[in-house]
Amino acid sequence: MVVKMINDSTYLNMKSICKSFGNTVVLDNVDFNVKRGEVHALLGENGAGKSTLVKILAGIYNADSGKVIIDGENVKINNSGDAQKLGISFIHQEFCLAMNMMVYENVYMGRENEKQKSIFVNKNQMKKKTSELLNYLDVDFTESDYLYELSIANKQMVEIARALSLGTDTIIMDEPTSPLSTKEVDTLFKVIRDLQKKDISVIYISHRLEELHEIADRVTVLRDGKYISTHNIAKVTKKELITDMVGRKLEEFYFKEDNVRDETVLEVKGLSVKDKVNNVSFCLKKGEILGVSGLVGAGRSEIVRALFGIDKKTKGSIIINGEECTIKSPQDAFEHGLLLVPEDRRVEGLMLDNSVSFNITISCLKNIFRGLSFKSKKEKDIVKNSIKELNIKTSGDDKLVRFLSGGNQQKVVIAKILNVPTKILMLDEPTKGIDVGAKSEIYSIMNRLTKKGVAIIMISSELPEIVNISDRVLVVVRGKITADLQREEIGQEKIMYYATGGK
């Protein structure tokens, strides 16, 4: 066990912070404090106010009232420049990096002539300083590599290097492990612990409760824009944190019904995609939830992308309800009742700068158009029913999807799918980056669908989700299925055994 040395004095205080957007109160007299050298986790459902609170600290938003105190002095943070001067850095969930520029250029972007009298940029100096930061972080890329060449984990390290180059005292990390593999998470945690040794504090936003006991020292919970509690992480259970987050006890967090029928709706025989999927065969029954597990890069997503017609299969057959189907495009899959909710909802699942209404109905335009005639009442009914059925939290159906929380964005993607005839639904990381309350709602939606006879293929990197929600589990390694586990065989240890090459 690693003993963390934390300066017990509170150096950063946010007191009675209030913030509203129009008539919507987002933060209501919230208190939050940070000690030097600690990892302080910030928890809450989507829409609880976490991001707004840290964006006020980072100078992205201005609070309506309240105060920020650093080392005993009231400070004004009007913009991100003020925050940086006070030693506060923010690593966003969506990286703020220039992909066509080199690492050192990203680290010193906007500060190329910092502390230099010359009007000319000293590239060698920037490269040298960046190289020193990368050596400290113990990464396997150089200051002259281009960002587009780096993995997601390494791009995150560039963000950390940039924060360190500012002489930061506090780094805000928003869902830092969301896109990372287990090995990459271990590397990130090592870096965070090294930062603590230098008395650098980390404000850590995450929905992965299982991470907190490994990396955090304290945790603060917000709910509906209000402060709920702060705990020493060693003295609080996951169950207690969930209760604080959602305001009710979740005795049965993973809600699961047995809705499997004997009827086979999908048979996949010998499916292959060049260098990605190798001779995959399996079947799927009506009302079944088939979990697909495996390590990052194992080929899980590639299987459903081939079934959906995004990636071209080199061989194999797809049989739906006893008939072999030719699926060369998503439109072909769509017409056979085979639908996909993609892993990256923001890039592949939504049109972010369009409204909730537009995104929900884009899949069923033929139901709201008759020739050139537009049936506005039909559209309004579809949208109204979808928002109600899936409990989508939005100020109105005309609100841009970009401004919804992650969980509500995911429910909009699912609503779009539910408004067309669906026999087989493929969900790729359906609860990635969303809070426990929204997860529970999505599990309930899945059960309602299987009760109606919809068959579901669910890819997930969260083993507790795979174990508790699946009727059967396929384990994938290097594009091959290495195990087909029945309900009574499913367990985390057995899945990991097969996922890591066990036979």
Give a description of the structure.
The chain is α/β, with parallel strands linked by helices and about 500 residues long. It has helices at about 50-55, 80-85, 105, 125-135, 150-165, 180-195, 210-215, 240-245, 300-305, 330-335, 345-350, 355-360, 365-370, 375-390, 405-420, 435-450, 465-470, 490-500, and strands at about 10-20, 25-35, 40-45, 65-70, 75, 90, 170-175, 200-205, 220-225, 225-230, 265-275, 275-285, 290-295, 315-320, 325, 340, 370, 375, 425-430, 455-460, 470-475, 480-485. Strands 6-7-8-3-9-10 form a six-stranded mixed sheet, sandwiched between helices. The radius of gyration is 24 Å and the shape is globular.
Write the layout of secondary structure elements.
Elements: E1 10-21, E2 24-35, E3 39-43, H1 50-57, E4 65-70, E5 73-75, H2 80-85, E6 88-91, H3 103-107, H4 123-137, H5 152-165, E7 170-174, H6 182-197, E8 201-205, H7 209-215, E9 218-223, E10 226-232, H8 238-246, E11 264-273, E12 277-285, E13 289-293, H9 300-307, E14 315-320, E15 323-325, H10 330-335, E16 338-341, H11 345-349, H12 356-361, H13 365-368, E17 369-370, E18 373-374, H14 376-389, H15 406-418, E19 424-428, H16 436-451, E20 455-459, H17 463-469, E21 472-477, E22 480-485, H18 492-499
Parallel strand pairs: 3-8, 3-9, 6-7, 7-8, 13-20, 13-21, 16-19, 19-20
Antiparallel strand pairs: 1-2, 1-4, 4-5, 9-10, 11-12, 11-14, 14-15, 17-18, 21-22
